[in-house]
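Before relying on records like the one below, remember that each one covers exactly one chain. Contacts with other chains, cofactors or solvent are not represented anywhere in the record.
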Amino acid sequence: MPAIGAGRGPPHGGRAPPRDGRRRHCGPRGRGERLGLHEQRGSTLISLYLERRADLIRFFTVRLRSASAAEDLVQDIYVRLSSRPAPADIQNPTAYLYRLGSNLMLDRLRGERRTAHRDGAWLDSQTTRMGAEGVSPEPSAEATVAARQRLAQLTTAIEGLGPQTQRVFRMHKFEGLSHSQVAAALGISRSAVEKHMMTALKHLLNRLA
């Protein structure tokens, strides 16, 4: 005689539990899963950036009329990609990289114009005219102290870098050498110079932000 309940389906028309006894979760994605998707998108964008880096430099060299300025701008793209979560609505990742670079370029140009205008206005206000010549006074004690503090913070942050990364950063940023010139001087590849600069910029961004 068959046991009571044998052969019957699950109660109330529900689904039978899985054979391995584990409960399936079909609810909405949790926060950790959403963060995983953001990280996956960011990783994909950085991989694409590394593939298209040379193309990006050529593209922005034409627009900025300076290979050095283009290299710095393309490094800023990497810093932005690695420091912020990727948007969820990117339809064309390649176009997104160029759009991000163009926005950063416009921001930089606007900043340079604002700085030039502000410095010019300050200089005019602080300059004493003697005939046709302008005589600019010495900077105030407060301005001198603030500048020294900023320099000390930057110096301390740079000292936190590895020795080779420090050399690369100083030669490019302080001595004005291009990536190719730094590579030739240190006997390393240009791609190695670029990696050192990426490391330095991320480090300084975290320390000075």
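Residues 3-10, 23-37 have pLDDT under 50 and may be disordered.
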